[in-house]
Specification:
The complex is a heterodimer. Chain A is α/β, with parallel strands linked by helices. Chain A has a single domain, classed as Thiamin diphosphate (ThDP)-binding fold, Pyr/PP domains (Rossmann fold). Chain A is 36% helix and 17% strand. Chain A is globular and about 50 Å long. Chain B has a seven-stranded mixed β-sheet, sandwiched between helices. In chain B, strands 10-12-11-14-15 form a five-stranded mixed β-sheet, with helices on both faces. The chains are: A alpha/beta, B alpha/beta. At the A-B interface, strand 2, helix 2 and helix 4 of A face helix 3, helix 4 and strand 9 of B. Strand 2 of chain A pairs parallel with strand 9 of chain B.
Chain lengths: 249, 363
């Protein structure tokens, strides 16, 4: 008997197993995204942009036209694509450093302009590709390579509330949610709604996904899940923050 | 379909920035992405007034980083996209340009040079030569046209879109604040009426068909895992750039064959140099004039031919030697003394050049 793995149809099998570390949450986020693309049947319309950082490892992940960009610059690149080709469904995929630090001006202004794009941002509380430095999302007291004694909120601030910020500036018609890899079905639903929002031309759509980074957290499987399921939601509330009224299904 | 912006030929008297907007229309550009900075602003002002009449688009971005990267996105999507900037904006745009260079994305950018470094003046200079030709963390695989007149701005804008799409290197029109703001006459024309065909802007992503089913997906990356991979890629780019350089290189030369002294200049300064050269000829001095039109690739063969019999060179530019370095690199090994007239951030008149050369001992 062979076990058939439940891979989304849009995943490119030739590039699997993927390039992320064992236990990394990216695979789960990309699974949710793949399932959403499958459900909406937009494989031939979608254009996927990925950032610098671990997200760049997704450059050949999907059977979808893909552009891997610079750190923080995925938002303007897919904005440029969407403005030139409004018939395409564009997805900007990035980490918390890319979206909330180096590319935050792009995220803020794309939301303010109500760009008809979808941003999927992976929050794993650190800069992972570069070796585990403090990110805007690092939890207070959390040890990283640049906060080796724990993040001091007095001098380095509190964890960035990304979706809350986006929801505060986003216009009517935008969709903003925070999901988690601990609830894959919900995460898929959020991403699918975000993409639908773009397809319907309603406005900007943004989903943050809480995710795990066992490599840089130095956690085993149990502690990784405990961190994602228990520690992170204390600072990052999971749920939909902004959504246009939904038609009854 | 809207009517063509220009049919046949049309005499005009306008500012350089207005010329750029008309030239982009004539070149069938689809969309401009831009961020305000002097002295480039009026490119956007004219484009935003003209664009809706011809079903063209515009996006004002949050900064020049975004203007550069949205332009990259537009080009990837198959639009004939462009942006414009200058000074500190040119500095910020280098990031997107380096990605375009690496990924062979045919962006077109208009640089109206202003004084530098830093914010400096909003007026004029030729101090963005190094940045525009070799900026970024790479090897400078770019095409840079240094224009001298409004007719140049129009002609080379059309040429820039075609060069970008034919050769797939980021392409620049390097102007300056004087060219941007002054008015002069020129001939606008429909490229087709002159037998110029625009190279089609093909999409690099969002191609027809379902990726993985009807065709392979476009997986475009600028990141490489090993030194060897990158080396092979860059060596390939270099070989290609070397191969196309002779096709691309352009220059203008007068009276060089018997000249004892040759004035080297580029851009708007070359207009003064040319007048100075003519005046000195009339006084019996053997003066020649050489102007590279492309600063990347530099017209190496032509400049070496032009100076073959000269005894001395004079480099004139509105920077403290950025163009001089390009000349020195190109003329390396020739035993020719090079004198200079360098005025960073200042215009240079023909009288100054005449005075400089008249003070020399001739013969």
């Amino acid at each position: 008997m062979t076990v058939k793995l439940a891979m989304p149809k849009v995943w490119r099998k030739e590039t699997k197993p993927h390039k992320f570390c064992p236990g990394c949450g990216h695979g789960l986020v990309l699974k949710a995204l793949g399932e959403a693309i499958d459900a909406l049947e937009i494989q031939n319309q979608a254009i996927f942009g990925c950032d610098i950082g671990c997200s760049l490892l997704a450059w050949d992940f999907f059977n979808v036209d893909t552009i891997q960009t610079h750190h923080g610059r995925t938002t303007p690149v897919v904005t440029g694509i969407k403005r030139a080709r409004p018939d395409r469904i564009v997805i900007a995929y990035m980490g918390d450093g890319g979206g909330y630090a180096i590319g935050s001006q792009h995220l803020v202004n794309a939301a303010a302009r109500n760009e008809k794009i979808t941003v999927v941002l992976v929050n794993n509380c650190n800069y992972a590709m570069t070796g585990g430095q403090m990110a805007p999302t690092t939890l207070p007291g959390m040890k990283t390579e640049t906060s080796p004694y724990g993040r001091d909120a007095e001098t380095t601030g509190q964890p960035m509330q990304g979706p809350e910020m986006v929801a505060a500036i986003a216009r009517e018609g935008s969709y903003v949610a925070r999901g988690t890899i601990a609830n894959s079905r919900q995460l898929k639903t959020y991403i699918q709604r975000a993409l639908e929002n773009q397809m319907q031309g309603n406005g900007f759509s943004f989903v943050e996904a809480l995710s795990g980074c066992p490599t840089n957290w130095s956690t085993n499987a149990r502690d990784t899940w405990a961190f994602v399921e228990q520690a992170m939601p204390k600072y990052f509330k999971v749920g939909e923050l902004k959504a246009p009224p939904r038609k009854e299904e | 379909m809207p009517e063509k912006p220009i049919t046949g030929e049309k005499r005009a008297f306008m500012t350089g920035n207005e010329v750029v907007a008309w030239a982009c229309l004539a070149a069938q550009a689809d969309i401009m992405y831009g961020y305000p900075i002097t002295p480039q602003n009026e490119i956007m002002h004219y484009w935003t007034r003209l664009a809706p009449k011809y079903e063209k688009k515009f996006l004002q971005t949050e900064d020049e980083i975004s203007a550069g990267f949205t332009t990259v996105g537009g080009v990837l999507a198959g639009a004939r996209a462009f942006t414009g900037t200058g000074g500190p904006g040119n500095v910020l745009m280098q990031e997107a340009i380096s990605m375009a260079e690496m990924m062979r994305i045919p962006t077109v950018m208009f640089i109206q040079q202003r004084g530098g470094p830093s914010t400096a003046t909003v007026i004029y200079s030729q101090q963005e030569v190094t940045l525009t030709t070799y900026g970024g963390n790479g090897e400078g695989y770019r095409i840079v046209y240094s224009t001298a007149s409004h007719q140049d701005l129009f002609d080379y804008t059309i040429k820039a879109f075609n060069a970008a799409w034919k050769y797939r290197f980021p392409t620049f029109i390097l102007g300056d604040g004087y060219q941007a703001k002054m008015r002069e006459s020129l001939m606008l024309y429909d490229p087709e009426a002159r037998g110029i065909t625009m190279v089609p802007a093909e999409p690099l992503v969002g191609l027809p068909g379902t990726p993985g089913v009807d065709r392979d997906p476009a997986h475009l990356r600028n990141t490489y895992n090993t030194e060897e991979e990158l080396l092979a890629l860059i060596k390939g780019y270099q070989a290609e750039y070397d191969r196309i350089a002779p096709e691309l290189a352009e220059h203008e030369a007068y009276d060089c064959a018997d000249a004892e002294v040759i004035i080297l200049s580029h851009g708007v300064v070359s207009r003064s140099a040319r007048i100075a050269g003519r005046e000195l000829r009339e006084k019996g001095m053997k003066v020649g004039y050489f102007r590279p039109i492309t600063l990347r690739p530099f017209p190496d063969a032509a400049i070496r031919r032009a100076v073959a019999k000269a005894k001395k060179l004079l480099v004139v530019e509105s920077s403290e030697g950025q163009f001089l370095k390009l000349c020195q690199q190109s003329l390396c090994g020739l035993p020719l003394p090079i004198e200079t007239l360098l005025k960073p951030g200042m215009g240079i008149t023909s009288e100054e050049i005449v005075a400089k050369l008249s003070a020399w001992r001739w013969g």
